[in-house]
Give the backbone structure.
Amino acid sequence: MKLALYLTFPYPDRETFSTFFGEMIRMRFDYLELGIPTGTPYYDGPIIRRTHRKAMEGFSFSFLKEIVNVSRLAGKKNYALVYYNHFHSSTGKFLDDLKEAGIDGAIVPDLLTDYYDERRQLSEEMKKRDLSLIPFFTSSTPDSAIREMTLLTDSWIYHGLQPSTGIRVPVSIDLMVSRIRKLCNDREIIFGFGINSMEMVRELRAEGADGIAVGSSLVSYMDSNDRQGFRSEIEMLGDAVYD
Amino acid sequence: MYSEQNVDIIPEKWYNIVPDLPEPLPPARDHDPENSSIDLLNRILPREVLRQEFTSSRFERIPDEVLEEYAQIGRPTPLIRARNLEKFLKFRGKIFLKYEGATVTGSHKINTALPQAYYAANEGLQEVVTETGAGQWGTATALAATLNGMKSTVFMVKVSYDQKPLRKKIMNLYGASVFPSPSTQTEYGRRTLQEDPEHPGTLGIAISEAVQYALDHDIRYLLGSVENCVITHQSVIGQEARKQLEIIGEKADTLIGCVGGGSNFSGFTFPFMDTDVEMIATAATEVPKFSHGKYAYDLIDTAGILPELKMFSLGADFVPKSIYAGGLRYHGAAPALSLLIKHGRIRTDEVDEAKSLEAFRIFSRTQGIVPAPESSHAIATAMEYCRKPENQGKTVVINVSGHGLLDLSFVRD
Ligand SMILES: Cc1ncc(COP(=O)(O)O)c(C=O)c1O
């Protein structure tokens, strides 16, 4: 399985972010997901929403480029998690900036729910710049939309298990994994949203997930400046993912 | 027309339309940036109900116990050819009624009250709470709770509480405690009364009170409409109707139903979504959510405790006129229904109280069934439809969501 780690960029400020990013980059994981801070992160839970507000001040594309550069040298793939709401009025320029910063692709969680009619257009714009559009699906994405987006893209796929990040409502992981697997065949599927226990990771693994993405559960270590705890959390996730 | 003993007509699974929608259903959103109202649902709804709300599965197996209860409360409900109404309208076509009023509580509401109460009892709960507008949903909750060995509390919109004393009696008979809302039982009710001691109440306020009461007393809240899992449960209506039509070799051209929160209409029509049948949703002119509402994120409850949903809405603090069709006074309509209306798959109509009363009288006299004031709106739409020359020869099915025997105070002698 693969491990994707999410950080809102740069939460809580550039300095603290750099410190924790420095810890993280020496550890084993595959994909770095950087949240581009925005005023309306609708599909994030309260923990990540708070990080968006805080990270806004420190954001710049030049700092993004610095961080992504280090990450690339460490052999990681780098993705932006960004709401279309944040850049749909300046799509071309924003995508150019992402590309220039060395980003490999973007997850756009509100594309299918709030901008469905623009999905092909965005996919085109990203293709032109050799950026991967990572399809983002949830339990409420209809079969037809999953099939279409799977054909429209060739990257891995992100599937949200929960209605928003960092919360836990009861879900049937087995049914969710088998449904999306049937619709996307052998595409790589990474599951995220609300993963906060090793038991969940093991269940996803057993059901045939290709990887997991974790974010909310890292925030508390940054808040308490607990570098040791941060490292061991990532190490535990790695143990569950890579054994 | 068909043997009520024919239990085979009751489906074994509920149908969830979400995976079959033409575009993604906009998800529930938190209202308050600091907290997660979606997470809070863990303390408001039975676990299994919450799981079904966010499921990706197209079908959900109906537990045997619930199937047994469905049979006990009168499922399958009859599909009746309305020959007298056809004659009255001089309609050269066929009109069928799917008659949800034939259940013991007199409306479709029991279809979802039973499973929700069953799941709550299964999870060890002793008490459930809800709100009611017209009284139909409160009645269904009260019966479902007592059948599953639980107590129930019902917050009833004050105008309906005053208009429909018999509703309170039947809920009491089923063991429920009933409070007029706004009430002094909750913080939100007390605040509303302080601002306006004569407040007539709204469904939005009553929902807020019921949800707050559930949180205050650590019990669970039952959902009457709007939410997706409710519509999934209500799919028994459409699945039965489809099978009943099939058995007699008929095919529907047009389905017509009324919309409050959208549960009876969606439950009736969604199982036909893979056909080219025409669908018409009737709201009340006094609650013009489709013609004057906005398709946007809005609150379910006035207090904003529950998450926001994207739907046609007049605004959560919309106070409608005191029409008798209490079940049609809700400010919004279920997200999946709203999406299909916006998409053009479902047409809408609006009928005012006078026109619905005329339909109510004609229908009572011709068919003998006294329809609920809510259902009378759908009947009015159907009557107009069947009078149009271009619709002659069609097969029209009306979902008569309830009977109006406890609403007769609305008919002047
Ligand atoms: C008989 C009847 N029909 C219709 C409704 C409207 O609700 P919904 O649109 O959820 O079916 C109600 C609600 O109370 C009702 O009691």
